[in-house]
Design a protein that fits this description.
Number of domains: 2
Strand order of the largest sheet: 3-21-20-11-10-9-12
CATH class of the largest domain: Alpha Beta
Helix content: 10-25%
Number of strands: 21
CATH topology of the largest domain: Antithrombin, Chain I, domain 2
CATH architecture of the largest domain: 2-Layer Sandwich
Structural class: alpha+beta
CATH superfamily of the largest domain: Antithrombin, subunit I, domain 2
Distance between the termini: 68 Å
Number of helices: 8
């Protein structure tokens, strides 16, 4: 079975489907504000599967969606492809206790320059791991998500950092929702108009309708905002978002929608205009920063780690003769969405242990207006391969900054 090929430096084929499948299953568990990256987890699980045996090997292969004997090759392919994407940095790191002997066949299968050792000075070792996480994410994630213990024998970590600048920036304007969970708040709103109404569309799902907006970046990375019906759960909306990104869910574009309320947060209306533009897309959303820490062992079944976490037996004879089990598996992630662009990072680690004149309106234009003024989802995606790099849910957007005028007393004092 082929596990995917690279085209023009991009990853494709079954690897994308496998990683997006893990994103879909993880996103389905989301209940509140978060950010996550299955793309950051998948290569680590693949290398573990390569050295695993018994039930642990079978569970990891099932979670990955590729056979265990092809997992390491697929992980190398994915990491190489990610490293070739403009605006995206991906890295793998491996550290072992100086007394742990690794099987050379397994270690040589990791990307070059990934291997280091640590001793019994855990403070110094932790500082080195934290520095690696900060360096590989440009400071967005400041420390390794796992903490070294006396029992620690191996740490396998992955870092992912991405950034993109909007092709068309947003203007910052205050947004004051008149309904919903954000009612009564003054938020840092973002607004822009364009002549591309098909950047937004509506998809029907068994759980309800979802509005999806594509915000294109300048380097091949797009961010998709997804808003569902109010009765839908975050997991249902994000799962639909993955389907939309993969084009498994048909999307009716804004230019084909009738007038009226046509989807969650989406309205089409005829309005006066100063220029002869027949169709216009008007978008209002919010700036946000989302941080999250995930304990992957809390969802051990999803990641194929149930058997691997059983410390009563050895699970990785292909990695070392020393009996190893997974003691910690965690991810720290961050996403920032603003008027000029988007930034995100994730570090995943597994540890083995025992004013102007009024305008003159002369024309009419059909305006497709999309408003994201209540909790919604987002997916950062490689445009060519449709690989979901980061996904998340926004519940606490950025507030509008308070402006203090010269000579005026600060508010609240």
């Amino acid at each position: 079975m082929s596990v995917g090929t690279l085209t023009g430096g991009r990853v494709g084929g079954e690897v994308v489907r496998a990683v997006n499948g893990q994103t879909r299953r993880w996103a389905a568990t989301v209940r509140g504000g978060t950010v996550l990256s299955a793309t950051g987890v998948w290569p680590l699980l693949a290398f573990l599967a390569d050295g695993a045996s018994g039930p642990a090997r079978a569970e990891l292969a099932e979670a990955l969606g590729v056979p265990a004997d092809q997992a390491a090759g697929a992980a190398r392919e994915l990491l190489a492809a990610l490293g070739s994407v403009s605006g995206l940095d991906a890295a793998l790191g491996l550290w072992t206790h100086h007394a742990l002997a690794l099987r050379e066949e397994w270690r040589s299968g990791l990307p070059a320059g990934t291997y280091g050792t640590f001793g019994d000075d855990l403070v110094t070792a932790q500082e080195r791991l934290d520095a690696w996480a900060a360096e590989r994410t440009g400071g967005l994630v400041e420390r390794m998500p796992v903490t070294l213990t006396r029992d620690a024998r191996m740490v396998l970590a992955g870092a992912l950092a991405l950034r993109t600048t909007w092709r068309q920036p947003f203007a910052e304007v205050p947004l004051r929702p008149d309904a919903g969970p954000w009612q009564g708040r003054t938020l840092r709103g973002l607004h822009r108009r364009s002549v591309r109404p098909d950047r937004v569309g509506v998809a029907g799902t068994p759980d309800g309708f979802v509005t999806a907006l594509t915000v294109p970046g300048d380097n091949g990375i797009d961010v998709h905002l997804v808003l569902g019906e109010e009765r839908m759960t975050p997991g249902q909306v994000l799962t639909a978002g993955v389907g939309i990104v993969e084009r498994a869910l048909p999307l009716t574009g804004g230019g084909s929608l009738p007038q009226g309320h046509v989807g969650p947060g989406l309205h089409v209306a005829q309005e006066p205009a100063v220029e002869p533009v027949p169709l216009t897309l008007d978008v209002r959303t919010v700036a946000y920063e989302v941080r999250a820490d995930h304990d992957l062992l809390a969802l051990a079944g999803l990641f194929g780690l149930t058997a691997a976490a059983d410390a009563h037996r050895a699970h990785f004879p292909g990695i070392s003769d020393f009996p190893l089990a997974i003691g910690q598996a965690r991810q720290s992630a961050l996403a920032q969405f603003g008027s000029l662009g988007f930034r995100a990072a994730a570090v995943t680690a597994v540890m083995a242990a025992p004013g102007s004149a009024p305008p003159q309106y002369r024309y009419e234009s059909t305006v497709v207006r999309a408003v994201f003024d209540r909790p919604f989802g987002f997916l950062a995606v490689d445009r060519e391969s449709r690989l979901v790099l980061v996904a998340g849910w926004v519940t606490d957007p950025a507030p509008e900054p308070v402006t203090h005028f010269p000579g005026a007393a600060p508010r609240g004092l």
